[in-house]
Amino acid sequence: MNSFLELSQIGKTFYTEGVAFEALTDVSLRINEGEFVSLIGHSGCGKSTVLNLVAGLDEVTLGGVILEGREITEPGPDRAVVFQNHALMPWLTVFENVALAVRATFRGRKSKAEMREWIEHNLALVNMSHAADKKPHEISGGMKQRVGIARALSMQPKVLLMDEPFGALDALTRAQLQETTMAIHSELGNTVIMITHDVDEAVLLSDRIVMMTNGPQATIGQVVDVNLPRPRDRLALAEDLQFNHCRRLVLDFLYASHGHDNDSTDADAPAAPVPAISESRERTSEVAATASDEAA
Amino acid sequence: MTTVALRLRSASAKAPKLLAKSVIPALGIALFLLCWHGVASNIETSLGQFPGPAQVLSQSQALYEEHQEQRAKADAFYERQEKRNAAKLEKNPDATVKWRDYTGKPSYLDQITTSIWTVMFGFALATLIAVPLGILCGLSDRVSEAVNPMIQIFKPVSPLAWLPLVTMVVSAVYVSDDPMFEKSFLNSAFTVTLCCLWPTVINTTVGVAGIDRDLVNVGRVIKLPALTNVTQIVLPAAVPMIFTGLRLSLATGWMVLIAAEMLAQNPGLGKFIWDEFQNGSSNSLSRIMVAVLTIGLIGFLLDWLMLQLQRTVSWDKQAVLR
Fold first, then answer.
1. Do the Cβ atoms of A104 and B223 come within 8 Å?
2. By the 8 A CB rule, do A63 and A9 touch?
3. What is the pLDDT of residues B177-200, one digit of tens each?
4. Quick check: A197 and A185 in contact, CB under 8 A?
5. CA-CA distance, A205 to A232, in Å (whole number)?
6. Which of A89, A162, A163 to mutate to test the interface with B (most CBs of B within 10 A)?
7. pLDDT tens across A42-98, in order?
8. Which of A157-166, B93-102, B159-168 has the lowest mean pLDDT?
9. CA B30: distance to chain centroid?
10. What CA–CA distance (Å, rounded) separates A20 from A63?
11. 3-state DSSP helix/strand/coil % of chain A, to nearest 5
12. CA distances from B270 to B53, B103, B257, B307 (A)
């Protein structure tokens, strides 16, 4: 049976000044429609490369990416990308940034009034209607990322690709945006591939967590199914056995089996797994408690 | 109370700014005039003493008076012509009447106007070629690699080396019974164009090639048509670099124009300087010095105009432009 999105034995080699660097080797993954998949791994393991290959921004060296039975050869609005640093045009307003994508995607398919309505609908989806006429420099980092998500959603993508979407945000804003993402996912049921560094984020949002080994020649090391019922409540999950089991699996993989030998180069990676768990557990509950205030 | 205190504080904060903005430059200018005067009075040339600020001022007044005399002569000429033709037509309504332009010597102000129009025309033409070419080079490595050797070879060539070629080509190609432009105007303007091209092409290329990868990728993901991509993403992103190029181009264009006018005896400030030099009267050096200062002031004005244009065109109103 054919799956919705299939990564079939992908390999990617970069050539810089004649020197070959094999970033990915034999990456195979099948993703079902409506599934939320997280890619997690250490910096430089090729997560972003996988995303770029699915987006079509980069070309595969070996294998292929197949979406609904068709091989991906170029970028397109059916695979919208949410960039890590929002990538909004600084010279356009929030509304115009989304409009740029809507006009290009629905040219000849929607009337002007319909486009306008659709842009407003997508801004409302991420709670950004109030800032429609503001320029990106006038709004906060979290708000920019909301607009980035609205722009991506406005293309009605088959697959939503999120490249560390909340990596540049503070913990409180991140928690808020995670809630928004979960709400949107349950409402629209879109297929999502998200890159993240954050173990809690991965477990909270995903149906499956794909863990990658360290590069070069990175590949998929292990896949964890997160069989938690939705909607998920981060406060309740903090004590949930299944939730903590999944987290434990991911942490084990990242820091015990595939920890960096040279930890000094990676400031994000804690030296030992145990303190990392307790630290992040505390942080999660704090975040959840204040996030509800923030949302008001 | 507090508002008064605040106002006082802001007033005292403004005072140093005012000092820096007007008093200090005025001091600098005064000091320069003093040095100039001192040095000038010690230089004797075969055409008399080197002109100091006072002589230059009196000559600039003289030049303005001459301009008004010329204007009056021209007006009188046209009035006579009008009367003569009207009388002719009254006698015989079918008579063919001739309308001639006044052919008196162009005044100093006429020369200034000619030079400004010439540099504007040459610069505008160069911009129309250089910006699109720069965008193409910035967007495509292949175009850039193909065009780059030509840029590198022609960039260091003094446009004056082109002048004889331009002159010959214009007189061979631009043949018309009722020419819209003087040939001398086109010669000077094309020479300006040739040197205005390069800074704009190079800076536009760099600006376009240096656009944030993410923004470029947004354009690719939403599949923007090529032209929309240029107008919506490439041009706004590259505006600062394009203007850097344009301002460099206009500045060199203005310098080259004066030299070209001197060399080719094309009307303009350059010709004025050369004529005065050949004339060799006791006022010549002062008049040339007037021209030197005029050239500087106009160059300054042109750059200021470009800066204002950049302010209106640029999306980034926070950026400090200087």
1. yes
2. yes
3. 777 888 889 999 999 999 999 999
4. no
5. 8
6. A89
7. 888 889 999 999 999 999 999 999 999 999 999 999 999 999 888 999 999 999 999
8. B93-102
9. 27
10. 18
11. 45, 20, 35
12. 21, 20, 8, 26
> A–B: how many Cβ contacts below 8 A?
57
Q: Which chain B residue is nearest to residue A80, measuring alpha carbons?
A: B221
Q: Are strands A36-40 and B44-45 parallel, antiparallel or unpaired?
A: unpaired
CA distance A176 to A247: 20
pTM of the entire predicted model = 0.81
Q: Where do we find the tokens 């850039």?
A: B144
Helices (H), B180-283: 183-209, 213-221, 226-229, 235-264, 269-279
How far is Cα B92 from Cα B17, in angstroms, rounded to an integer? 72
Contact A199, A246 (CB under 8 A): no
Decide if B264 contacts B188 (C-beta within 8 A).
yes
| A57–B222 C-beta distance less than 8 A | no
Residue B299's CB is within 10 A of a number of other CB atoms, namely: 17
Side by side, the strands of the sheet bearing A36-40 are A79-82, A159-163, A191-196, A36-40, A208-212, A220-225
Round to whole Å and give the CA distance between B42 and B49: 8
- Of A134, A115, A114, A132, nearest to A123 (Cα)? A132
Amino acid of residue A143: M
C-beta atoms of B224 and A57 within 8 A: no
Q: In a 3-state reduction of DSSP, which class is residue B48? A: strand
H/E stretch holding A1 reads none
A chain contacts of residue B318, beta-carbon cutoff 8 Å: 137
How far from B18 is each of B6, B22, B23, CA to CA, in Å?
A: 18, 6, 7
Per DSSP, chain B holds a count of helices (H) and strands (E) of 12, 2
For residue A190, the Cα-to-chain-centroid distance in whole angstroms is 13
Euclidean distance between the first and final Cα of chain B, in Å?
A: 39
Share the mean pLDDT of chain B.
89
Reading the block at residue B258, the tokens are 């004066």
R_g (Cα) of chain A, nearest Å: 19
Cβ atoms within 10 Å, residue A64? 14
CA atoms of A51 and B212, how far apart (whole Å): 19
Do the Cβ atoms of B236 and A80 come within 8 Å? no
